Amino acid sequence: MSAHKSRKRFDPTYPVLVLVVLFLVAIAWRQGGWQLVLEGFRLGGMTLWSVIPLLIAAFLIAGLVQVLVSEQVIRRWLGRSAGWRGILLACLGGALIPGGPYVYYPIAAVLLHNGASLGVMVAFVTAKNLWTVSRLPLEIALLGSELTLVRYAVTFLIPPLLGLLVERFFGSLVETIRQAVRV
Fold first, then answer.
1. How many Å apart are CA 118 and CA 80, to the nearest integer?
2. One digit per residue, pLDDT tens: the chain, 183 residues?
3. Closest residue by Cα to residue 96 from 84, 85, 104
4. Which segments of the chain does DSSP mark as H helices, in order?
5. Angle of the 145-155 helix axis to the 136-143 helix axis, nearest 10
6. Longest CA span, the chain
């Protein structure tokens, strides 16, 4: 491996997040002193505490997917050569997988790192956000069946279409993206 490839690129995510925290702390302190800052930290801690079980489950699922489903299988069914079938499988998976981003992003990361194509990843995440079957009963109960049906009808083609477009125009970037997000 060349020296260039072995060096990790600078990731600005953490410094930017720290700057955002410091900026918000300054605003909270200015508006209400340390009491408001501590209340914000308390509420953030409560949110973290409530999602810890989801995070643990999601990362365990991601690890188990990684050891149970070989890279060869992922490349075959969800890789670039899978074409539209891989994109449709990703749409179906995105629609059926329960939970929020804490659940599906770790799984998407494992799939991406093990050979899924860029179009498949976009289709998966987009379908998860637009087609979530687990949200369907609540949506019908709160918004009514007519509005829910219209929303699903209008968004039905978006996940597979985005997957195909991304694969067509940006699919060749998948290896660069994999290297950039390796941990």
1. 8
2. 444 454 566 778 889 999 999 999 999 999 999 999 999 999 999 999 998 988 898 889 888 888 898 899 999 999 999 999 999 999 999 999 988 888 889 889 999 999 999 999 999 999 999 999 988 999 999 999 999 999 999 999 999 999 999 999 999 999 999 988 875
3. 104
4. 3-6, 13-68, 71-78, 83-96, 101-113, 118-131, 136-143, 145-155, 158-170, 174-180
5. 130
6. 59
